[in-house]
Specification:
The chain is of the alpha/beta class. The chain contains 18 helices and 18 strands. It has a seven-stranded mixed β-sheet, with helices on both faces. Strands 6-5-4-9-8-7 form a six-stranded antiparallel β-sheet. Strands 1-2-3 form a three-stranded mixed β-sheet. Bound molecules: zinc ion. Zinc ion (ZN) binds next to loops.
């Protein structure tokens, strides 16, 4: 049996705060936030003992913490929650009135802290996060408008209103998110951003928070780095087997340059991540230079650029070459100096993967030339290029065949297609009544074969190169998209939104 039976919490004697002389706020008393959070307050302290009032005597964690902290005799008493709340709001108002404008900031901070640590607000914000993960959202937007606060999720690239919240709760929600994001809760006039991991019960997620002041309050945008997205394979992305074959031939070259192109948000990073995970092997050293590192891949050396301290793409690339890598991934070729270094690395025995902003795959050739790279060098290093876009996938729970509309027939006819049926999503619970669930890539990819190399080296114009690729059987972005619409993976509407035909 235990030597000294623990005193049952229910036997704590009830006291009232009026029985004690209030201890001054500073140094003698616990910090305001601590009292507020744990519902306990110091009643008295002398050389021998401390008296503590606590609302919930069953909180043995707090009792033990305080015993450890004081290292002297601690006597606990039970106090009423209503009495403590009254005391706290009184203290707050005294702080506000007595100390005047000089310390109004302190009381404002206390008030914001108090609001942000309110249990209903914590639960509300947590549920916004948890629901967003369940819905496979990539971003959460919380905005203050005239009468209410609107919470929207970006799912499969489109914003969806999830709920509206009473406008008076906005300061508390905003403060809560600032605390989670390690931002300054007092700052409401300047934009702030931060990146952190948050703990939501048993889940840990990486988020990037951006807060910008607006006329009505603030606009809060949160990017969620979902680990499931990080595990996408080329198969998941919708690579047809022929494109997969070309991609594998290109990316298993011992050296050379492979470029993925497309606008921001077209999934270039996800594709390159999937390629890197395929190439990962204990016989090769892989280094990436990224801005930002979105997904951490085990077994790969990932480096984050930081322009403020001079860690630019080109500077890092120069250093990385001395690391004896086999494969280098450069997040983006933005300038001439990075382009030159990437080409030089590719010429000196490295496989270099990178991205460029061009509309289609073949445009990487004029783009590199415009950056001052000689045609013979482009011909010498380029192993291939790919362009991609993301389109929404039809919901597999509610898609159903139907007749193509006249418009759809006209579009398809231009590409020599004439399907009898096309699929549409009717909308169901699984897809939030949108008819779509998840996304896939549509793409065009070409390997740089010998004939193409000689055309590039001879300074052939884009039109000629495009013609040669067409003769070689390249499937364009539009053709790949329409084929996926015909197969019932996506719709013509989605393809038309992604590429101009
Ligand atoms: Zn559905």
């Amino acid at each position: 049996m235990s030597k000294q039976p623990k005193r049952h919490p229910d036997t704590l004697e009830l006291r009232t705060l009026a029985q004690y002389t209030p201890l001054p706020e500073h140094n003698k008393q616990y910090p305001f936030e601590y009292i507020e959070r744990n519902n306990c307050i110091k009643l008295l302290e002398n050389d021998d003992e401390v008296h503590v009032g606590i609302c919930d005597g069953k909180r043995t964690d707090i009792l033990e913490e305080l015993i450890r902290f004081h290292r002297k005799k601690v006597v606990f008493f039970r106090i009423e929650k209503s009495e403590l709340s009254a005391y706290l709001s009184h203290t707050l108002s005294i702080l506000e009135s007595e100390k005047g404008p000089a310390s109004s900031k302190d009381s404002e901070r206390l008030l914001l802290d108090k609001l942000a640590n309110d249990a209903p607000i914590i639960n509300l914000v947590n549920s916004i996060f948890i629901d967003s993960i369940r819905a496979d959202a990539t971003d959460i937007h919380i905005e203050a408008f005239t009468d209410n606060v609107v919470v929207r999720y970006r799912i499969d690239g489109e914003l969806r209103t999830i709920r509206t919240i009473d406008e008076e709760n906005f300061p508390a929600i905003s403060s809560r998110i600032k605390i989670m994001g390690n931002l300054n809760i007092m700052e409401r006039r300047l934009p702030q951003d931060g990146r952190i991991s948050v703990n939501l019960g048993d889940e840990v997620i990486d988020i990037r928070v951006s807060i910008v002041p607006t006329a009505r309050g603030e606009s809060i945008a949160i990017r969620l780095f979902n680990k499931n997205t990080a595990l996408f394979t080329l198969d998941d992305l919708g690579f047809p087997s022929d494109a997969m074959g070309i991609m594998r031939t290109i990316t298993t070259s011992p050296h050379g340059l492979f470029l993925v192109t497309g606008p921001t948000g077209c999934g270039k990073t996800t594709t390159l991540n999937a390629v890197l995970r395929e190439l990962k092997d204990d016989t090769v050293k892989i280094i990436t230079i990224e801005d930002p590192i979105e997904y951490v891949i085990d077994g790969i050396n990932q480096i984050q650029t930081n322009d403020k301290i001079g860690l630019t793409f080109d500077m890092l690339l120069r250093r990385v070459l001395r690391q004896d890598p086999n494969i280098i991934m450069v997040g983006e070729i933005r300038d001439v100096s990075t382009a030159e270094l990437a080409i030089r690395s590719a010429l000196t025995g490295h496989l270099v993967l990178s991205t460029l902003h061009t509309n289609d795959a073949v445009s990487v050739i004029p783009r590199l030339r415009n950056m001052g790279i000689d045609s013979y060098l482009v011909a010498g290093v380029l192993r291939g290029a790919m362009a991609q876009r993301l389109v929404r996938r039809l919901c597999t729970y509610c898609k159903a065949p139907g007749k193509p509309t006249q418009n759809e027939q006209a579009v398809l006819a231009r590409y020599g297609m004439n399907p009898v049926t096309l699929f549409k999503g009717r909308g169901c619970k699984e897809c939030g009544n949108t008819g779509y669930k998840g996304r896939c890539a549509i793409m065009e990819i070409f390997p740089c074969a010998e004939q193409l190399q000689s055309l590039i080296a001879r300074d052939a114009d884009t039109k000629t190169i495009r013609k040669a690729l067409k003769a070689g059987g390249i499937r364009t972005l539009a053709e790949d998209g329409l084929r996926k619409a015909q197969e019932g993976i996506t719709t013509i509407d989605e393809v038309l939104k992604a590429v101009s035909l």
